[in-house]
Design goal:
The protein is built from 7 helices and no strands. By secondary structure, the chain is mainly alpha-helical. The chain has one domain.
């Protein structure tokens, strides 16, 4: 019980934050590839990952984000995307909720804070998310799928 509801979410939040700050130059700003977003496939395996991703994103945005809108909306976008990823029936669809939701939500935030054209911001975020979630995230998912019973049960 402790593992499922405390340890797994805490580890995911810590790893998310560590990856954000290890790759700080590309984690924030108008063009971003958040390597930590590869972890957004984890709710496919366990609902516990939903909370870990939310807390990790919230803390990362609190420390390095664009402001209150990024802290609140960006974190809520991650929460919604993580929940939808958990609901995916196919592992091949797991990376898509964070790509789509963050493209529109973070695109809006970039539009507000940096004056970036909205559709350009959406395209920019979608591209970065595709690299992180579909590229790195899918590699992570395929590797973890081999050990899911030992890791997430």
């Amino acid at each position: 019980m402790l593992k499922k509801y405390v340890i797994i979410p805490a580890l995911i939040a810590a790893i998310y934050c560590a990856l954000i700050f290890m790759f700080m130059p590309v984690s924030f700003g108008t063009v971003q590839i958040r390597v930590a977003e590869a972890l957004t496939v984890l709710p496919y395996f366990t609902p516990s990952a939903i909370y870990g991703l939310f807390v990790g994103c919230f803390l990362a945005n609190l420390i390095g984000g664009a402001g209150i809108l990024d802290i609140v909306l960006g974190s809520l976008a991650t929460l919604l995307a993580a929940f939808l990823t958990y609901r995916m029936k196919s592992k091949w669809l797991a990376p898509f909720p964070p790509i789509v939701i963050n493209a529109f939500v973070v695109g809006y935030i970039l539009n507000i804070y940096y004056g970036m054209d909205y559709w350009l911001a959406v395209a920019s975020v979608a591209a970065g998310q595709t690299v992180s979630c579909l590229g790195l995230g899918m590699l992570l998912l395929l590797q973890l799928d081999k050990y899911k019973e030992r890791l997430f049960s």
